[in-house]
Amino acid sequence: MASRRRIVIVGGVAAGTKAAARARRCDPGAEITLVEKGELISYAGCALPYYVAGAIAGESELVVTQAGEFAALRDIDVRTRTEALRIDRPAKTVTVRRLADGREDVLPYDSLVLATGGTPLVPPLPGRDLAGIHRLKEPADARRIRAEIDAGRVERAVIVGGGLIGMEMAEALTMRGVRTTVVEMLDRVLAAFLDPEIAALLHAHLRARGVELRLGERALRFEGDGDGHVRRVVTSGGELPADLVLLAIGVRPSVGLARDAGLAIGPTGAIAVDDHLRTSDPAIYAGGDCVENVHRVTGRPVYSPLGSTANKHGRVIGSNVAGGDERFPGVLGTMVAKVFDYTVGATGINAARAVEAGLAALTALVPAADRAHNYPAHQEIVVKMVAERHSSRLLGLQGVGPGEVAKRIDVAATALSFGATVDQVADVDLAYAPPFAPAVDPVHHAANVIRNKRDGLARTVGPLELQHMLDAGGAFLLLDVRSRAEFVARRIAAGARLLHIPQDELRTRLGELPRGVPLVVCCQRGVRAYRAARLLSGMGLGDVAYLEGSLLTWPGDIETGSS
Q1: Which residues contact 406 (CB under 8 A, 6 or more apart)?
Q2: ∠ at Cα 272 (270, 273), nearest 5°?
Q3: Which of 74, 167, 200, 454 could crosslink 555 through cysteines, CB 3.0-4.6 Å?
Q4: Residue 196 in domain
Q5: Which of 346, 342, 338, 446 is nearest to 403 (CA)?
Q6: Are residues 170 and 139 in the same domain?
């Protein structure tokens, strides 16, 4: 009789439990042991902000499966509150210690899986050990934050970090009546995903909902009043009162066990794995937040700790430790988040990342209705598409707004997975009906804008570029081609540089346009401005561009009423 496979898995949550469950399905006779340092083997970490907010009522709803249930259903030896101490690679054993009594056991393996996850970063700042300073990784963290709010002890909160957790917790705390400030050292939130134009729209929404943003500031220290509890956060910009502080500056991969065993660590600081998710030791696999991945757009190693990725890792690993031959192709960094009434999402790379990767890029910034414009439930969204200039290959998409953003991100992620060009994206046969989408979807529209740029039919100025032009006092004219009523109601504050001529009057009023002065044409969304720019170019006015996104993406000053 053939010996049974011995599979040991260190770590639960997403990758570990998924690998265990998949291995059991693929090899019903294997000996599978799962070791987890904590009490819970599987919980919904991404749901923690919604528990703090009260949208998820009970802590039990955060638990995906209990250890006993998981063990009994799948015939797996589950050992909670058990820490893996060291790996003996030549002997193929793992030494573990039970935290309850300190007893050590040696577990032999044929295949070992490391799913040791990641740890929230805690900056080495003075005062970081004061009470009231939290991180958010496990249900117990969320329980402590929620308890402080429920007890009425939190009027002001400071979130250090403007990443995904920071954004979701800004909403959660505000919805609980806590005055919230986000301190972010970079010039924008979600900087790993968003270019400045999309981030600016999210900034405006956060501020409109009462969140104070302190961008370009560093937290320097935390201070109390002698009672051991945090009361202030001192930043490079001043002092912020705080009854509660959340540290949300990122996650560090937990690689101590792997490093001590001599396994290769990649350039991101996470465990290096191949496309089978094998480490540098072919008997040891790793997945989840402790490993680095290959980015499918750039081909470079990235650290992308997401629950969706960890689950995919678990399936691949579970198949392979049971004798399979599955591959993991890499990641696109796809994300989506709810921030108050807005959805924000991204996939692939943004324009800034394209520059870092040495890719010449074309972009399109497109406001659009998420459904047919005449359907009552339609709402605005803004998408920014990025494509490679010479090949027209799609590189990424970002989106933000109160409308249906996630659908567009998923379409782009699918196209990216198959290496689509913007021409192919423009021809994708997406579902259309007024309650669900416009006839020309925002994704189609963005792809067409990039094709127009590539083919020399459009020259654009971005909203931030126009703001710089206005601030610099350059010689140009901003031409607004909307109707008189629209212009009077709301317009860009450009002073003497602003001229209004409705689009349908352009042909008869060309004489009012000065020759030899660069023109930037604007409207509400950009469509009329593009048509006007094409007309003016055809009529001999050579230096003509249009404002991408026009008023719907304009971050600067606005004038209203009669001029």
Answers
A1: 336, 343, 345
A2: 130
A3: 200
A4: yes
A5: 342
A6: yes
What band does 1 get if pLDDT is binned at 50, 70 and 90? very low
Q: Domain check: are 317 and 398 in the same one? A: no
Give the pair of three-digit tokens for residue 291.
């490993």
Residue 48: strand, helix, or coil = helix
Do the domain assignments include residue 142?
Answer: yes
Residues annotated catalytic, as ranges: 46
| Structural domain harbouring 500 | 460-559
Q: Taking the CB of residue 28, how many other CB atoms lie within 10 A of it?
A: 10
Distance CA 372, CA 36 (A): 50
For residues 443 and 430, what is the distance between their CA atoms, to the nearest angstrom? 10
pTM score above 0.90: yes
Distance, in Å, from the CA atom of 99 to the CA atom of 148, rounded to the nearest integer, reads: 29
If one counts every other C-beta atom within 10 angstroms of the C-beta of residue 267, the result is 11
Number of domains in the chain: 4
**Tokens in use for 399?**
């989106």
Same domain, 375 and 360: yes
Show the tokens assigned to 226: 């002698």
Q: How confident is the model at residue 563 (pLDDT cuts 50, 70, 90)?
A: low
Domain boundary, last residue among 434, 454, 474: 454
Domain stops at, among 249, 283, 302: 249
Lowest mean pLDDT among 17-21, 347-351, 396-400, 495-499: 495-499
Kindly report the CATH number assigned to the domain that includes residue 182: 3.50.50.60
Residues 280, 427, single domain; the answer is no
CA 87 – CA 98 distance, rounded (Å):
16
Q: What is the rounded distance in angstroms from the CA atom of residue 490 to the CA atom of residue 488?
A: 6
**Amino acid making up residue 563:** S
Digit-coded pLDDT (tens) for 123-162? 999 999 999 999 999 999 999 999 999 999 999 999 999 9
